[in-house]
Amino acid sequence: MANSRSFFLAALAAASRAIAQDTDIDIPTGLTPRPLDPDVYGYSIEPVWLDSYLSTPLANNLLSIIANVTGKAPPIRVGGNTADQTYIYDTLSTGGDSLSVPNATQAKTFNITPNWFDTWADYFPTGTDLIYTLNLAVNDSDWTIAVQEAQAAHEALGDKLVMFELGNEIDHFINKGWRDATWGIAEYTEQFRNLTGQITASEWYQAADETSRPKFQAGVFADPPWVPDQQDEIDDFSIDNLTKAWEKPDSGVDLDIVETYATHLYPQSTCDTARWLRMRLDLLSNHTTLWLNVSQFGPQAEAAESTGKFLVMGETNSVSCSGRSGISDTFGAALWGVDYVLTGAALGIRKLYFHLGATSEYSSFTPLPYDLKNETLQPGIRPGWYAHYFVAKTAAPPSPGARLSVAALPAANSSALSGYAVYSADAATNATALAKLVLLDMAVWNGTQGLSNPSTLSATDNDDPAFFSAAARPSSTFAFNTPWCPGADVQVTRLTAPGTNAKSGVAVAGVSFDDATGDRVGEEALESLTVGEGGVLSVSVRRAEGVLLEVVGQEVCGGTGTVPVSGAKGMERAGLWAGMVALGVVAVGGLM
Ligand SMILES: *[C@@H]1O[C@H](CO)[C@@H](O)[C@H](O)[C@H]1NC(C)=O
Ligand SMILES: *[C@@H]1O[C@H](CO)[C@@H](O)[C@H](O)[C@H]1NC(C)=O
Ligand SMILES: *[C@@H]1O[C@H](CO)[C@@H](O)[C@H](O)[C@H]1NC(C)=O
Ligand SMILES: *[C@@H]1O[C@H](CO)[C@@H](O)[C@H](O)[C@H]1NC(C)=O
Ligand SMILES: *[C@@H]1O[C@H](CO)[C@@H](O)[C@H](O)[C@H]1NC(C)=O
Ligand SMILES: *[C@@H]1O[C@H](CO)[C@@H](O)[C@H](O)[C@H]1NC(C)=O
Ligand SMILES: *[C@@H]1O[C@H](CO)[C@@H](O)[C@H](O)[C@H]1NC(C)=O
Ligand SMILES: *[C@@H]1O[C@H](CO)[C@@H](O)[C@H](O)[C@H]1NC(C)=O
Ligand SMILES: *[C@@H]1O[C@H](CO)[C@@H](O)[C@H](O)[C@H]1NC(C)=O
Ligand SMILES: *[C@@H]1O[C@H](CO)[C@@H](O)[C@H](O)[C@H]1NC(C)=O
Ligand SMILES: *[C@@H]1O[C@H](CO)[C@@H](O)[C@H](O)[C@H]1NC(C)=O
Q: Does the Cβ of 373 fall within 6 Å of ligand 8?
């Protein structure tokens, strides 16, 4: 079988010479892919802004479109800074179910009634997993607020409510004045035990069916492990330290109720002057930067995995403190979003929740008109949404019940280039084969079109000719040595825009979305390619563009013919299967 492998490489080299390829991308053996869940891309909604999102059909429509593509609705976490400023009352003086004081933009407190949970119980598409962040900060009377919130949330949301978080970004609690200097793993552990103990002992929890009892997403830390100047306070919080402490027999933490661990990541920030001066679109659309930002969570993901749980990026976006128009709302941020989710998944970060606020400059979509910085903005959709739609196409199982996994390609790993191999494990047999490839040209190319978007600040439109890229937009050809059969059809889903700086004009395989309704606009126009001799597949990609390549019918060549990965062929396939394992084009089981 090693001969077949050499044959691939020789054929690749020959094909490359023949058609003058710019770049060969090797798909090596021995990659270790990690799970790519269909709902890997989720949203986190700031509690004070939830009402705005519920007030129009836009979010429901967009999320339903994703659910249709992947078969699983995106998970929603309702949490953020204002979770620890939330107070629950039987009724409010206004007669409503929620009230931000003084207002949502500058909320100091967020008051809710138990009914508030009913207002969102039926909004999201069927099958949406909901996570709610309880108020851990306010510790009066042994967290009576959190205990009441938990009960009200469960009563309204039922088994749609899959997890609670206890507090948001608890590694900022000392600086916020919510805990004293002793705050750290030991104190958190005691408080986690106490509050979860009260919740799990409560009547409603005990009465609930075992499968509909919410679990807990622990941690919820904000400080990036390897960036000291972005760490808020001195403490010992890390997922590594936490899992080690909780694994000790005397920790007293019931690990059965802990489902996941969460960290947060914002690569750039408007929060302070030092970081303000470092904000740059071309650093966001840069795979090397992304790797530096995300790989610091690799050890945290491994720590979670070593205890049989997994890590999620429970709240994230491009630029913290509400985003930065001109960076967060451009096509560069969309390429970053795709690259980020796939890099994260390949490192073991199982879900990433992109934060939403109805007036935030990083939100992928906003439901209502509002005034910001002397402008009136319209509801609408920003390029980040297209990243989600493209990721959905990537994470959609190719056959019912198939489970995907993803690995980064070493040959597509520079500032300007990022690539991934996506494998599919058959539902019945776990036979695993390469199903898809993703290639992102992240290099900056500033165009002259799509510069504005009525849902973003016009002051940040990149319309200064000094920034426009000169001459024609470059295009490169990439040749992969795939295990796919010569002659097999490959569908190409292309993520395009007029340039890195574009705020509009984005499309995925020719499809765009109506800014007001979220409806899909245009017929999907998939390109199609044919696998060449020796499995070589060539595709051309323009600068600042992404492609998803998907083999039709999941055909893998075992050297002796076509091996349909799904569709039973009994022993005949078992023989070929062993061959493919030796060839290294497949990995069996255990990936998920
Ligand atoms: C989802 O798919 C169903 C069935 O094909 C269709 O009726 C529905 O309109 C789709 N919804 C969206 C939001 O695309
Ligand atoms: C929110 O309240 C603050 C403080 O009262 C005020 O300055 C600001 O204008 C208000 N913002 C909006 C959008 O109403
Ligand atoms: C309870 O909260 C107060 C302030 O919000 C804080 O000073 C105190 O340390 C907290 N107590 C515990 C046991 O965490
Ligand atoms: C929580 O702590 C309080 C004292 O602060 C104690 O009375 C109570 O029993 C504890 N509850 C649990 C479930 O640990
Ligand atoms: C983990 O705990 C150790 C020992 O308490 C501490 O020195 C270290 O700083 C902690 N790590 C982080 C990232 O806080
Ligand atoms: C992300 O990477 C950039 C460039 O290296 C760096 O300036 C920034 O501090 C990083 N952010 C985080 C949160 O790691
Ligand atoms: C991309 O980011 C890396 C690390 O932050 C930096 O060294 C490199 O110069 C950047 N590349 C470009 C083209 O800006
Ligand atoms: C908004 O307009 C006021 C009054 O003209 C001005 O002082 C302020 O700087 C403007 N703000 C922004 C963000 O442009
Ligand atoms: C990509 O490059 C970084 C160094 O910039 C390296 O640490 C990482 O392992 C590489 N990834 C792959 C998949 O080769
Ligand atoms: C497939 O893998 C899953 C998860 O590892 C496992 O539960 C299942 O038993 C495997 N099925 C077969 C047929 O090996
Ligand atoms: C593209 O425009 C951005 C600002 O939107 C600027 O930071 C960057 O330097 C420009 N890049 C090129 C290659 O022109």
A: yes
**In angstroms, rounded to a whole number, what is the distance separating the alpha carbons of residues 503 and 242?**
41
What is the pLDDT averaged over residues 250-256?
95
Residues 21 and 63 in one domain: no
Domain carrying residue 409:
2-31+402-572
Residue nearest to atom 11 of ligand 7 (CA): 415
Tell which of 349, 374, 399 closes a domain. Answer: 399
Q: Is 198 helix (H, G, I), strand (E, B) or coil?
A: helix
Same-domain pairing of 382 and 406: no
Ligand 7 pocket, residue 61 CB under 6 Å: no
| Ligand 8 centre distance from Cα of residue 504 (Å) | 26
Same domain, 447 and 354: no
Structural domains counted in the chain: 2
Q: What is the mean pLDDT of the chain?
A: 91
- CA-408 nearest atom, ligand 9: 13
Q: What is the mean pLDDT of residues 531-546?
A: 97
Confirm whether 201 is domain-assigned.
yes
Answer yes or no: is 418 within a domain: yes
CA dihedral 292, 444, 361, 373 (to 10 degrees): 130
Say which amino acid occupies 244: K
Rounded to whole angstroms, the Cα distance separating 271 from 322 reads 9
- Does 444 contact ligand 11 (Cβ within 6 A)? yes
Dihedral, CA of residue 325, residue 222, residue 66 and residue 158, to nearest 10: -130
Q: Is the distance from the beta carbon of residue 282 to the nearest atom of ligand 11 less than 6 Å? A: yes
Examine residue 589 and state whether it is found in any structural domain, yes or no.
Answer: no
What's the pLDDT tens digit per position in 350-385? 999 999 999 999 999 999 999 999 999 999 999 999
**What are the tens digits of pLDDT across the range 492-515?**
999 999 999 999 999 999 999 999
CA-nearest residue for atom 2, ligand 5, is 236
pTM over 0.90: yes
Ligand 9 and 410: CB distance under 6 A: yes
* 359 Cβ closer than 6 Å to some ligand 2 atom: no
Residue 469 lies inside a defined structural domain of this protein: yes
